[in-house]
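Morning!

This is the sequence you dropped in the shared folder:
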Amino acid sequence: MRANIRTARPARRRALTLTAIAAAAVLGLAAPASAHVSVQPGQAEQGGYAGVTFRVPNENDNAGTNKLEVNLPDDKPLTSVRTRPLAGWTANVEKKTLATPITSHGKTITEAVSKVTWTANAGTRINPGQYEDFEVSLGPLPTDTDKLVFKALQTYDNGDVVRWIDLPGPDGKEPEKPAPTLKLVPAGTGSAAKPSPAASGASGQNVTVAASKSDKASDSTARTLGIAGLVVGVLGLAVGAFGLIRGSRRAS
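The structure's back. Tokens below.
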């Protein structure tokens, strides 16, 4: 009888351990898949105009996001930046005078956009557990670099400010607060954010953005189904563990 008890105890511990691991996996996937401010999609073609989205998840359980500041790179000035209207938010585009004027579409450009700030109107915020997409068109994109870094500041309504400004270290490891980065590829290669035909003009008109509301719905649905499947798996393990424990008790 004592031998049976000794045999049952390790089996019981293994069953409980498996259940705990599965439950932890479910909780991990229930969190945002990309829990930092990022550029969607992460790639665009050099030399043209692109529609991109700054995706902002709310990581604070006790406060809401009410402001986003996106700083454009100083060394690679972008002369045309257009924001897409977003209900409940006010966008402000700031420009700066270029130290050295540049030529675009046959025109001399003396200013470039330095920062875009979205501020929530009264009664609006990104609530805990949610995210929002801030859509812009950018261009013309430089042809002499393989990436653009957009340092961003996320402000919460309790006064906290999260600075998404860090760059990868020499080992390439992602920092704790990475700056949103847009990879640039030569025109005609790879998958990248595509502009609408109107974006080819000199004025840099609005372009088709990468992430739509249906994309959000599809992403949420897929994530929900995945989590639901894992929950079912956890319940199955729990039932199995319970049966194993009952069986060990009977054997003892």
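Headline: The chain has a mean pLDDT of 76.

More detail when I'm at my desk.
O.
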